[in-house]
Amino acid sequence: MAFSDILAQDHITNHFRKTITSNHLSHAYIFTGQDGIGKTLLAKELSKAILCSEKEDDSCNSCNNCVRIENSNHPDVHWIEIEEKAKFLKIDNIRDLQHSVKLSPLESSYKIFIIKEADRMNEEASNCLLKTLEEPPTSTIIILIANSLTPVKETIKSRCQIIRFHPIPAHIIEDQLIKRFDADTSKVGWISRFSSGSMGNAFELLEDNFYEKNSDIVNRIGVSGIDNLLLAEEVIDNYLSSSETLEEKRQALRRILNCILQFYRDLLVVKIRNVYGTGKKTTPLFNADHEDTLQQCAGYLTQKQITAIINDILESIKYIDYNLNINLLVENIFTRIAMLNSSERE
Ligand SMILES: [Zn+2]
Q1: Ion ligand 1 — residues with CB under 5 Å?
Q2: Which of 57, 121, 176, 277 has the fewest C-beta atoms under 10 angstroms from its C-beta?
Q3: Domain residue limits, the chain
Q4: CATH number of 3-164
Q5: Which range among 56-60, 160-164, 245-249, 288-292 shows the weakest confidence by mean pLDDT?
C-alpha cells in the first residue's frame, strides 16, 4: 500500500505529500467521514510516509519503518482504541497518551498517535486529551479518527486540522469489487450503488449476501396484497434473529429499511419516467434488475402514496437508535406500508 492505493481521496493525499515535503505538518488532525471510507488506512499510510527512510513524500513499503508500521509494531506509532466490550474511550486510554507525548521519539523524527473512534470519547477522556492539545509537544502528531464530528468537543476541533473524506464514487467501488471477487455484474453493480460511497460497507454487503436479501425483500413487497404481519415476522426471522448484539440488530434493520427505501425511491423514478417519458438514461435505478416488479407497483400506487411511504420509512430509520423494541418497530413499519398500499387500491 501507498498513497496511490488510497481510493478517491486525492485531495487528501496530495495535501499530505506537499506538507510532508515542506515540513508543514500540523500537530493534530481529525480524519472525518463515514465508516469504511479509508480513514484508518490513510492514517497508517500517512504514518509510513512521514517515517519512511527511503521516500520523501510517500511510503516505500519495504524499509524497516514501513514494514513495522504495516505490522503495527513500530515503537513511535501508537494506536489508541476502545477496549473490548467498552462503550467509550476512557481516561486511562488517553492518560497513557498524555504521558507518552512528553517523551522524545525513540528512533524517529516524530511520534505519531492515532486515536480510533475519537467520536466515542467520554467527558473525562475528552478533557484529558484537550490538555495535551493545548500544549502540543514538539515532534508529535496526533490523528483523531471520527465518523462524525458532532460528538467531538468544539475545543478539541478548534485545535486540530480537520481532514474530510469524500464518499467513494460507485464506479470505483464497482471496479474494486470486480477485481477482488468473482461476483456477477448485477450483484456488484447493486452493491456499489447501495454502499453509499463506503468500500468497507460494500465488502460487508457482499459478505452478508445483501444483494440476495434485497431481491427477496423487493419480491415480497412487490407482491400485491402483502400480509404485513407475516412479512414482518419473516424479516425478523430471516434477517434479524442471527444478530448477536442489539447494535448488530440495529445495523441489520437499518440496511433492510434502506433496501425498502431504495425500492420506493426507484418506484418514484419509474412513476416520473412513465408520466413524463424522460427516458431510461436520466436517473439510474438501484433495482434495475427488478424493473418488472417496479412497473407493476407503479401501476397501482400514486406519487403521493409513494412519497408517504418514503417519509414513513425515513421516520422509522430515525427511531432505530432509540431504546425501542426492534421487533415492534418492524411490525409497525410493515403495517404502515400495507395500509398505504391497500388504501391506494380502494
Ligand atoms: Zn519506507
Answers
A1: 52, 54, 60, 63, 66
A2: 277
A3: 3-164, 208-345
A4: 3.40.50.300
A5: 245-249
Share of the chain above pLDDT 70, in %: 94
Start-to-end Cα distance in the chain? 60
The CATH number assigned to the domain with range 208-345 reads 1.20.272.10
The model's pLDDT over 61-83, given as tens digits with 9 standing for 90+, comes to 999 999 999 999 999 999 999 98
CA of 142 to the centre of ligand 1 (A): 20
Could you report the per-residue pLDDT of 24-52, keeping only the tens digit for each?
Answer: 999 999 999 999 999 999 999 999 999 99
Q: Is the pTM of this model over 0.90?
A: no
- pLDDT over 60 (residue 91): yes
